[in-house]
Design brief:
The protein has 651 residues and is α+β, with helices and mostly antiparallel strands. 43% of the residues lie in helices and 21% in strands. It has 15 helices and 19 strands. Strands 1, 2, 3, 4, 5, 6, 7, 8 and 9 form a nine-stranded antiparallel β-sheet that branches. A five-stranded antiparallel β-sheet has the order 10-19-18-15-16, with helices on one face. A five-stranded antiparallel β-sheet has the order 11-12-13-14-17, with helices on one face. Helix 6 packs antiparallel against helix 7, helix 6 (254-282) runs parallel beside helix 8 (314-336) and helix 14 (604-614) crosses helix 15. It is rod-shaped and about 140 Å long.
Amino acid sequence: MPHKLFSLGLLLLALPAHAQELAGKIVAHDFYAYHAGDDTVWARPDFDDSDWEKIRIGTFPFDRWQGIGWLRFVLEVDSTLWNVPLALFVFHARGADEFYLDGELVHRIGKVGTTEKDEEAHYGYHTPQIITFRPTSKMGGGKSRHLIAERYSSFYQLSPVWSDGRNFSHWRIQSYGEVIQASAQRDNFRRKVTTHQMLLTGVFLAFSLMHLLLFLFYPQARANLYFAALSASFALTVYVFFPAVNYYHFITDPADLVWAARLQTTAMILMMLLAIRLTHFLIRLRLPSIFFAFCFVGLSVALLYWFRPFKTPLYLVLFLIATFAEILRALVVSRIKKRKTQLEGRWIILLGLIPLWLTAVYYLLAEDWLAILPLLWEFSDFPAPFYAMVLLMISMSVFLSRNFARTAVENARKTQELEEARKLQLSMLPQHLPILPNLEIAAEMKTATEVGGDYYDFHVAEDGALTVAIGDATGHGTKAGTMVTSMKTLFNTLESRSDLVRFLKECSKTIKSMHLGNLYMAITLARVKSHTIEFSGAGMPPILIYRAATGHVEEVALKGMPLGSFPNFPYQQQQLSLDTDDTILFMSDGFPERFNVQKEMLGEERAKTLFAEAAGGSPEQIIAHLLKEENAWANGRPHDDDVTFVVMKMK
């Protein structure tokens, strides 16, 4: 709404069509008299103000305002209105007023003071104070010419924040019936604006809550977190926008108006920063340094505006332009470099942008082509840009939800593939343990993921010799499963034709030639015949042998590099004798390297102790004891690596 001081004639022309007759019967002179200073004599109608400064209606000597002054204005009322209730609408800025009708004080607003300390200022610009004149008042009674004098003080408006003078009060004369109608219209407008405010704020908060829950349920989809924050910033922006823009209907204290403007600007800056972050994330940019630069500049702009509100500085405009430019730059660069992004299905977002573009064009046209777009202008109080933003948020929500659903489908597919790979890996393990007259055997494997990297196998030769293999591929998952598959093939193909060292060397050469990258296989091989055991190792934990005769656990370790690292590594071989009830424990490093919640490792010494505690039982009982104590040690911490046991007990 344009700000005009004492623009009575212009305001009357702006009255509704049914009030034009009234406007023609109240004649206002083209000038009013103004004098700085204070003297109550100036309220008298017979006072000679001929030497006062004459100022045209609609203007005011802002540069000469001294904090207090008087204004005198002549009205001529047609005799047909002498018995009609009239009212003076006062659109009051921060300050205090006394209104005199023909020398008699008829209304006060605040308390006029000759100094800022004495003044009791009131604020209510665009929330009019209504001074009514009944038929029995001096506004009627057979007199057509009347003098309205205003004694006005406003020391606050000497502040640089308000020095542009836009906030001086102005007033207009209306019929009393129009007062009631205008009040009803004002209340109706306030209800409409509040409805828009609450509805839009609720919609944006609903989007924020929904995508925050999606993130909490699936933290890997961090785009939902950034979108939830962006939606929340939209809600904050909308909530403070309506009071700040329509302050004359909602705010009666300048301090509240200052806070509303500060919050609106801060929310807008936060919204732009979050939009940049979401864009960077969707195009799979790691947190770039330019984002931190924008954060620093945005914080600086917010602080500068915080201390100088109501001044729309160039740096604020430049910051907003720069944020749009950065979003566009990131999208264009990702497109040119053909960088893999999360923007598959971006057409959904583009559809949501169309209403926002149309509303932007509409408001530009409505502003510049008002004369030829009267119908469009009638709907200008409808906050179309915000509802266009709702459509944009809907499209972005659909886009993210679609990607979330596609991710869920892809994860389900991968899970199915991993399950198939797990079944394949388990099928490669011995389905039945060897049954030999001089040995009891048990084996168990616990994988850290669907597809583990551990492996064990047996081979019984024609002479009754049993070869045992227990291995651990690099890492775990599908790559480790590939190595296990290769090791299974090599074991079945080469074991019966090679001694242990030769087998390890041939396997290492073969794996090296497969060019599997950083995939290696640690393995322990042992061959048991009668009461003798031969073994060789390539990067596995030591073999533990419980000697029943002494009750001690013997640790046997042969150092060697994992298969696939060095094709001609000089692996070693050793032979030991076994007695009745001696027990042998083969284990992967997942057992001694098991961590608890305090990130302490179980360790090889504790592993030996736990083995000794159960070595008198059967192989199955020994494994059960080790798994039980391992779980107690971890205290709920998930496995970091696969755990495999093979236990053999001499009969």
